[in-house]
Amino acid sequence: SKTLKMSNDPKWNKNVEDLRGKNEANLPSDAWMVRPCEAFKDEYSECKSWKGRFHQTYVYGNHFDCSRWKEDFENCMKFRKYDDLDALDKVLKHEKERRKNRLRAAHNNDVWEYRSEPYKEWNSPLSEANAQQAEQTLFAIKEKEKLYKQNKEQSGGSMCVIS
């Protein structure tokens, strides 16, 4: 049987649990792509909200058709309640199309070349100049402060010297 992977996000685990309750042998191999039904409802609400409409008008000059999100939510709920595999297929079709559209710009990019393997020395140590520069970043400074506070708390916060 197929194994469905768990995530650290409880919202995604809810979806995986919904899928686990079904007959996994009948599920399509890409059923993992389906987000929780609540995600489609959230997308629909955001699309129809006045803030969403304002953003659409400001950025694109017109309003989007939000019916697809509503349709995906309804189909997702049909699958969740009635094990309707046709409804699941419709949601999968829309998710694949959405993903393809989202990645289109990256795939049509003619500036960058995609690597087939990682850079040979991707994990090599930083040069002396880069290492010194890395020590001066905000992150490094905050880490040092954090360690100082932890050491101070562990030592009781005060020192007594007897001479």
UniProtKB/TrEMBL annotation:
Primary location group: other
Localization annotation: Synaptic cleft
Pfam families linked to this entry: PANTS-like
GO cellular component, one term: synaptic cleft
Family: Belongs to the UPF0545 family.
Name of the protein described by the UniProt record: Synaptic plasticity regulator PANTS
Organism: Owenia fusiformis (Polychaete worm)
Species lineage: Eukaryota, Metazoa, Spiralia, Lophotrochozoa, Annelida
